[in-house]
Amino acid sequence: MTLFGFIRRILSHTFNLQSEHDELEKKFFEERAALEAKYEKFYEPLYTKRYEIVNGVLKVEGETNEAVIDGGGNKSAEEKGVPDFWLTAMKSNEMLADKISERDEGALKYLKDIKWGRINDPKGFKLEFFFDSNPYFKNSVLAKTYHVVDDENEPILEKAIGTKIEWYPGKCLTQKVLKKKPKKGSKIVKPITKTENCNSFFNFFNPPQIPDDDDDIDDELAEELQDRMEHDYNIGSTIRDKLIPHAVSWFTGEAVQGNEYDGLEGDFDDSDDEDGDDEEDEDGDKEEDEEDEEEEGKGKKKRNGSAKAGRGQQGELPPLCQQQ
Fold it and tell me: Sign of torsion, CA 193 199 203 209?
């Protein structure tokens, strides 16, 4: 027998071992999924009781009905449950806090609960954010659904779908109305008013999508889209795997924040407009020109996430703008 034939004979046995291993691994993942589903049912009553306590539905031992008296001696209206529970928990997580602007906080104070569940057709998971009646939008529930496919047990993000938010007039948190001052020497005297997309947590419900036509994507855009989709998937996974099951620990600050989020996108630097072509929002705050923001944004590189991006449906990718 030649050396080559001897090696092939050895490898044939190795291939058989690999096949047996793959079958066992497949069985492992099936049993693990079934075990996770089993314990999710055990968790559900705990989450329900947490919701009741946080929102004042269930009165706990030691809780008082007396009105709160502040330092000035004035009685304030009684607050039931744990005020700003989910907002505080979210802001304790570095990845989520990076997405929450000051303008978002007013709306997130009305957040009563966050839930998640598996979906099987197509495969993936769904996040649901339950809100009390509020002056910002009409929706009582904002949902985000992730469709994924498994590639050798690694999730591949196919697309993400978010709820369309029904904003009340003038209350949209994902856009700002800006007043642009005319350039020096211009015949136009009045400021030009325009609307721009803004950095907001509520952009989470308008996820990035890959266009259906591959001809519309060059290499640079494809890489940018994949990075954004991976980052979006990581946010959803963080809410599912970290925030929801350990919300109390995030609220108290006891949850340990590791280094897995190092290298996230930073804030844009402020710079003055040499031409005097500044923009102001409705409160009179200066905004950089859209062109300047795009130029600065080119130098920012995001960290790749754990999920791969697949094909998706066409959708807008809102640019970032400065926040107060």
Answer: positive
